[in-house]
Design goal:
18% helix; 418 residues; elongated; binds magnesium ion; 28% strand; alpha/beta; 28 strands; 6-stranded mixed β-sheet; binds adenosine monophosphate; single chain
Length: 418
C-alpha cells in the first residue's frame, strides 16, 4: 500500500472491504489472560483445546432399549435372554463382560454398550417377561450406538485457537474438563466523536445542539465484536484540540472517529490526520449510507511504534452503525485474535418495490419477518441516514447492488442481519 496519503481514494464496496480484510490479515493478537469458563462467553480462545480423552469415552447407547447381536434378529419375533441391566454411569463390574448369541442386556440412553453387542433395539419394539424379552424389529449392525472416539479422539483438537467462544464451544470446553480458559485480551478501542454541535448525554442541549449518540452505538458494537470501548472526550471542530484527542486515541489498539469526514468546511479529521503523516487506504466507499468512510494507519501513537489503524466513520448515526459493521468490525475482530470471517447474508422476499438511484451499494434499514420458507423483508420508512428512530425499529439491512434502479416486490434480496 502506498505510503502517500491520497485522500481522494474512493473505492467500490468490495474493494474497500478487501483492503480492510487484507490489512486485518496482517495483525496478530498477542496478550492473553485466563478467565473462568462462564466469563469466557464471547471471548476469543488463545490456544487450541484438545480432547483429554476419547469422546465418547465408551461405545454409547443413544436409546433406551436392549443391547443385542444384530444377527440374533434375522427371524422375528426373536426371544432373547436378559442377562443384565445397564444404566448411564453403571460401574464397570456390573456390566456383563460380553453379550453372547441369544442374549441381551437392557440398556439406557447414555450407558456403555457391552462387548459382544453390536446394536441397540429401541424399547418400543420389545416386551420383557421376567428374564426373557421378545423383540419385534430388526436392527443393522451399529444401529443406535456411537462408537468410542467417534466424536473426537484423545489428543485431537476440539476448538481451534482464534475461535469465538459460543455456547456450544463452552459446552465442549466443559466436557474436556476446562474450568478456566486462556483467551486474548480485548483490544482497547478508542471512540472519538467530533462536532461543535455535539453535547454529552447528560447535558441539556441548546436549541441547535444534539446529544452524542454515536459513541454509545459504537461502544455496543465494539463490545459485540470483542473489543473494549474507551470513550474519549467530544472533540470540537478545532484542529488543535482534535489533534490532541486523535493522538490520545492512537495510543489504543484501534481508533474509531465519528463525524468530520464529509466535504464540509469543518470536516477536519482527514486534514488533521494528513498533517500527522497518516497513511490513507481509502477515503470513501461507493455505499449508502456511509460514503465518506475513511480507513488508514498512523504512526504517531507512542504506545504503538508500528502504527495504529483508524477509521473515520461518517457522523450520521445510521452511517456510523453501518460503516462499523462493514469495515471496522473485521479489523476489530482480527485485533481481538479472531480468525477472519466473511460477511454473511440471508435472503428474503421483498414485500414492496424499491426504487433508488444507481451507483452506490445500499444497506437500507428494513424489517425481516415471516416463516422459514417464506421470509419477507420490507424497508422501514426513514428520513435518511440521520434517522436513528427508524433504524431502531429495523432488524436488518436490505442490500441493493449499485447497478439496480428498481427491485420489484417478490424478488429475493440479500439481507444483512443486525
Ligand atoms: P458530520 O459527519 O460531522 O458531517 O455529521 C453528520 C451528521 O451527523 C450531523 O447531522 C451531525 O450532527 C451528526 N452527528 C455527528 N456526530 C454525532 C454523534 N456523536 N451523535 C449523533 N449525531 C452525530
Ligand atoms: Mg461534524
Amino acid at each position: 500500500m502506498s505510503a502517500n496519503p491520497d485522500s481522494s481514494r474512493v473505492l467500490s464496496f468490495e474493494d474497500a472491504r478487501r483492503v480492510v480484510e487484507d490489512e486485518a490479515s496482517l495483525v496478530h493478537a498477542s496478550q492473553t489472560e485466563s478467565v473462568e469458563l462462564l466469563a469466557s462467553a464471547g471471548r476469543v480462545l488463545a490456544g487450541a483445546i484438545l480432547a483429554d480423552r476419547d469422546i465418547p469415552p465408551f461405545p454409547r447407547s443413544t436409546r433406551d432399549g436392549y443391547a443385542v447381536q444384530s444377527a440374533d434378529l434375522s427371524k422375528l419375533p426373536s426371544m432373547l435372554q436378559v442377562i443384565g441391566e445397564i444404566k448411564a454411569g453403571e460401574k464397570l463390574e456390573n456390566i456383563p463382560a460380553t453379550i453372547g448369541r441369544g442374549q441381551t442386556a437392557s440398556i439406557m440412553t447414555g450407558a456403555p454398550v457391552p462387548g459382544g453387542a453390536d446394536a441397540v433395539v429401541m424399547v418400543e419394539y420389545s416386551s420383557q417377561h421376567g428374564q426373557q424379552v421378545e423383540i419385534t424389529k430388526q436392527v443393522v449392525s451399529g444401529e443406535n450406538i456411537v462408537p468410542r472416539g467417534a466424536e473426537a479422539q484423545k489428543g485431537s483438537p476440539l476448538i481451534a485457537r482464534g475461535s469465538r467462544l459460543t455456547d456450544a464451544a463452552i459446552a465442549l470446553a466443559a466436557s474436556a474438563g476446562n474450568s478456566k480458559l486462556q483467551v486474548y485480551k480485548r483490544p482497547r478501542t478508542a471512540v472519538l466523536t467530533t462536532g461543535d454541535e455535539i453535547v454529552a448525554v447528560d447535558a441539556t442541549p441548546g436549541p441547535t445542539q444534539i446529544r452524542n449518540s454515536n459513541s454509545y452505538s459504537l461502544a455496543v458494537q465494539i463490545r459485540q465484536a470483542g473489543g473494549d470501548p474507551i470513550l474519549l472526550p467530544i472533540a470540537p471542530d478545532d484542529p488543535g484540540r482534535l489533534r490532541e484527542l486523535i493522538e490520545e486515541g492512537l495510543n489504543c489498539d484501534l481508533l474509531l472517529m465519528t463525524g468530520g469526514v464529509s466535504m464540509g468546511r469543518y470536516d477536519l479529521v482527514e486534514q488533521v490526520l494528513s498533517e500527522m503523516q497518516a497513511e490513507f487506504f481509502f477515503s470513501g466507499a461507493k455505499i449508502q449510507p456511509g460514503r465518506p468512510v475513511v480507513f488508514g494507519k498512523c504512526q504517531c501513537g507512542a504506545g504503538a511504534p508500528a502504527g495504529t489503524y483508524f477509521f473515520g466513520l461518517p457522523g450520521n448515526p445510521v452511517s456510523t452503525m453501518v460503516t462499523f459493521e462493514l469495515f471496522a468490525r473485521p479489523m476489530l475482530e482480527a485485533l481481538a485474535g479472531m480468525s477472519p470471517r466473511k460477511l454473511a447474508f440471508v435472503h428474503a422476499k421483498l414485500k414492496s418495490e424499491i426504487k433508488v438511484k444507481p451507483g452506490l451499494k445500499r444497506f437500507l434499514p428494513a424489517i425481516l419477518s415471516g416463516e422459514v420458507e417464506n421470509s419477507q423483508v420490507e424497508l422501514v420508512a426513514w428520513q435518511g441516514s440521520g434517522d436513528i428512530a427508524a433504524t431502531a425499529r429495523a432488524n436488518c439491512y436490505v442490500v441493493i447492488p449499485p447497478d439496480r434502479e428498481r427491485i420489484p416486490a417478490g424478488e429475493w434480496v440479500p439481507v444483512m442481519i443486525r
